[in-house]
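Re: the request from the purification team.
They wanted to know what the chain is likely to look like in 3D before they choose a buffer screen. I agreed to run a prediction and write the result into the notebook, where they can find it.
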Amino acid sequence: MLWQTFSMALKAIRTNKVRSALTMLGVIIGVMSVVVLIAIAQGTTVSVTESIQAMGTNLLTVNITTRRVGQYAGGAQGGFQIVQQGVQGAQRGTVILTLDDILSLTDDPNIELVSPVVSGNMTVKAGNANTTAGVMGVLPAYAQIRNQAVQNGRYIIQADIENRSAVCVIGTETAQTLFGNTDVVGNTLHIEGRPFRIVGVLQSRGSSGGSSSDDIVILPFTLAQRMLRSPTINSFYVSAVSPDAVGAAQNRVESYLYKRYQNTSSYRVMNQTEMLDTISQSTESLTLMLGGVAGIALLVGGIGIMNIMLVSVTERTREIGIRKAVGAKRRNILLQFLIEAVVISGIGGLLGLLLGVLLMRVLETTQSMTLVMSAGVVQLAVGFSMAVGVIFGLYPANKASKLRPIEALRYDG
């Protein structure tokens, strides 16, 4: 009996192919949206997490949040005036963090390496080609702290720092943009009109979070400070001697900064675990938001199913009357229309899943995106589409099952 009811439901769907296909469209779009959007969110999580983990487990990131005011005075003694607001807002003082201040942290036995960072976007030119690239000023220790290696040439060395040498290390994307290849060691490029000799090319690290890690120019920190007009240090990286020493190293850095600023809101020290937790919380919120947006599309598809099923009940009133007249029970009619709704939403869900997978492959190929589709997402999308069929098909099916045989047979629609 159940198979007969199922067969009749399929026959009714095949009889109205176009209408059934249009009804499925909302579910198809909804499931496809759920699969692709959540895959994007999860892929972003994986990509960013891998990038952070690749930095090492003993990394500390320090950001100075004190507001800067004043004018750059220029020269070796010039600088911005740093105004630091006390906790009560009553005391003000000038706090300038210098290179010597940062390097003194390595006296602590738990801290192995330290490198300040100064960065900004600048116009980089070579021949007739030019681009706007991220320019960073670092110390030689930065390469080890951030696992940054060169594929050709060398990295910044201490002599470059001391002499403010006009040399640079560039990313593979910058090399391709300016020279058309990565074999560029010894060539010259111009940053804001100033010539720099290329001494090294970085190993490619790809993209993360939609931004490229290879479109970059590395300069000696001392020279970059002058070019970027930033004589004080607003961010730096610290490498602990081992993963077990990260906590002690973080305490040392925080203690040092508190003595300088007397205000914990003037700086932030983050270790890898905290960074991963922050990323995890952000991407979980993103996943929920994108999943909710896609879920709305599924609900719209469900409303479409209910509307079409109500039309179908009206069109087939006489059929329902004949079935009841020859002995069909209320549950048989209810089950027939409910199966139709579930089959429509189920097929729509499977087609949406297939199209979602195809769209993911296209995005991965054309946009170099990292997409992750978990089994849980597949089960959620298909299961939700089936639930939509049951929920929105129940009312029309119930309405059909309640029709009285005599009234149904008299219906002349």
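For the purification team: Residues 67-92 have pLDDT under 50 and may be disordered.
Please add any questions underneath this entry.
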